[in-house]
Design a protein that fits this description.
Layout: E1 2-3, H1 13-38, H2 42-50, H3 56-63, E2 71-73, E3 91-98, E4 101-108, H4 119-135, E5 139-143, H5 153-172, E6 177-181, E7 184-186, H6 191-194, E8 198-202, E9 207-209, H7 213-220, H8 226-230, H9 232-239, E10 244-246, H10 249-261, H11 286-289, H12 300-304, E11 312-316, E12 324-331, E13 334-341, H13 347-362, E14 367-373, H14 380-384, H15 387-400, E15 405-414, H16 415-420, E16 430-433, E17 438-440, H17 444-461, H18 468-485, H19 488-493, H20 506-517
Parallel strand pairs: 4-5, 5-6, 6-8, 7-9, 8-10, 13-14, 14-15, 15-16, 15-17
Antiparallel strand pairs: 1-11, 2-3, 3-4, 11-12, 12-13
Helix pairs in contact: 4-5, 13-15, 17-18
Length: 532
């Protein structure tokens, strides 16, 4: 491998302007993340203390190995939903390390609304279980939820069944699950712990039943206490629904660590790894490399040079299809094949990507897609040269590679280019985005022009001629819609990614992601490599 050179002038006005712009975006992101994770009304924290319960962050600290990393998913989920009443969608999910083993953690946040499930809460839990299933990662459930938010029950009920379905699939795949019940587990949620291999309940705090005492009385006339109906001791000694009953949350989390410690460790002998080394070029320069405008371009090699080990990169076909960069590198010791955009995709770039993906699939090298793409090139000349079929070949191979795929939205990610680069709907194992990124069916300016022309044509067919003011209003409305719906905070709020990250955290995030997705060997589908 060769060390990537850099052509960045860190003293230039453009670099300084970019740095100031992106540093401000990163600071705003950090403030939002801090608020979502830690800012709660004092009255709610006091209420938890009165109940003898720990905040979710303390629970995580007791569960996870000391000083180990935690790769949180969708920390800003629901940040633009439910009038701000459900930060993090009231559940924390991510990959952490317990007893040296990587596990997916799903932890209720009962500091607000008693950990009630909103529709995005369900989507977030389902997504975490999908990640666990696809990567064969064990799961730890820390359960403390008041149940479904009934005013939105139709949206919740329609998707909540996927949670239990995925738990069943995990069990069939031999993936361990342990439940630590720290609060109520009522109605359908009672299946959360009962579908796990082992279940721990805290006396006096944890209750598991299909219907609580009020509903039992209404349905049958029977009067029964919560403890008699579904308390820890009853389930641990009578029904057998729980395996352990303990007195405190600290005991429960310590016991969970003991259980996880005897699970089988993953076999990593198949991994081709090297000793990690920091990038040769300073990652802090990323702020000055990323443009301050989504319409401006940059060389993706400059980003790669500040993320990969030693800034070392073996580029594939460097002189062909130059609007796409392809090559192999290592990130925190993990080998990875990188596909990064330097603008629009032409036929040559699509064909290069197709060949490179087949080579990585053959050699069992995970793929990282770094998005800076406005789409495929359009026009008569390019259609005659086969841009549609060449793009289709890229899509076909990308959809069917058997190695793990990761995606990073580093700038624009628009149109079919998003699909070709393993956007959300093309099932990358994990997808992260930078706060400067934008993703939509097309750019805001192109969309505004298109939508304005459509509206004008409709008015003219009715014999109406808009005034300059009406025309400006149409353009403003169209532009505002695309700017809002393509913005990263809108997208992350709705779980269109697995988290917004600071560009300076990219190397660690991708390194942790590669470690998690590479633990399970892939079985390559037979097939020849096409020289296209």
């Amino acid at each position: 491998m060769q060390r990537l050179p850099t052509r960045i002038d860190t003293t230039s006005d453009a670099f300084r302007a970019n740095h100031e712009h992106n540093q401000a975006l990163a600071e705003d992101l950090r403030a939002r993340l801090n608020a979502a994770r830690h800012e709660r009304p004092a009255s709610r924290l006091a209420r938890l203390e009165e109940q003898g319960k720990l905040p979710v962050q303390q629970r995580l600290d007791l569960l996870l190995d000391p000083d180990s990393p935690f790769l949180e998913f969708s920390a800003l989920a629901a940040c633009e939903a439910y009038d701000g009443e459900a930060p993090r969608a009231l559940v924390v999910t991510g990959i952490g390390v317990v007893q040296g083993r990587e596990v997916v953690v799903i932890a209720s946040d009962s500091s607000l609304k008693g950990g009630t499930w909103y529709p995005l809460t369900v989507h977030k839990i389902v997504r975490a279980l999908e990640i666990a299933l696809e990567n064969r990662l064990p799961v730890v459930h820390l359960i403390d939820s008041g149940g479904a938010y009934l005013p939105l029950q139709d949206e919740i009920y329609a998707n909540a069944g996927k949670i239990f379905h995925h738990q069943c699939l995990l069990s069939a795949a031999g993936v361990p699950q342990v439940a630590v019940v720290l609060g109520h587990c009522t109605a359908g949620a009672a299946y959360l712990p009962t579908l796990c291999d082992e279940s721990i309940m805290v006396r006096g705090k944890a209750f598991v039943f299909l219907a609580g005492p009020p509903l039992v009385k209404a349905a049958t006339g029977e009067e029964v206490s919560a403890e008699e109906l579904g308390g820890a001791d009853m389930h641990a000694t009578v029904s057998g629904t729980a395996d352990y009953a303990v007195d405190t949350e600290r005991e429960a989390l310590s016991l969970a660590r003991d259980i996880i410690g005897v699970w089988a460790a993953p076999d990593r002998r198949h991994l081709d790894m090297r000793e990690p080394e920091p990038p040769y070029h300073d990652p802090a320069e990323l702020y000055g490399i990323i443009p301050d405008d989504i319409k401006k371009q940059f060389d993706m090699r400059e980003v790669i040079a500040r993320i990969v080990d030693g800034s070392l990169f073996h580029e594939f076909k460097p002189g062909y299809g130059t609007t796409l960069v392809t090559g192999r590198a290592f990130i925190l010791g993990h080998k990875v094949g990188i596909i990064g955009n330097n603008g629009v995709l032409f036929s040559e770039a699509a064909n290069k990507a197709t060949q490179f993906m087949q080579l990585c699939d053959r050699d069992r090298i995970p793929l990282l897609f770094m998005h800076n793409i406005t789409g495929f090139m359009v026009g008569r000349e390019y259609e005659r040269r086969g841009i549609s079929k060449d793009g289709a070949k890229m899509l076909m191979v990308q959809a069917n590679v058997t190695v793990p795929k990761l995606s990073l939205l580093a700038h624009a990610s628009q149109g079919a280019g998003n699909y070709a680069m393993a956007g959300r709907t093309w099932s990358p194992r994990l997808l992260f985005a930078w706060p400067n990124s934008r993703s939509s069916i097309m750019g805001s300016q192109q969309a505004t022009k298109t939508l304005t022309e459509v509206r004008l044509a409709s008015l003219k067919r009715r014999g109406e001629e808009p005034t300059p003011g009406e025309l400006a209003a149409i353009e403003s409305e169209s532009y505002e819609h695309f700017e809002t719906t393509s913005h990263p905070y809108h997208l992350t709020s709705n779980l269109r990614d697995d988290g917004l990250i600071d560009p300076l955290d990219t190397r660690n995030t991708l390194g942790m992601a590669l470690s998690a997705v590479s633990a399970t060997p892939t079985l390559r589908t037979p097939g020849g490599v096409l020289r296209i």
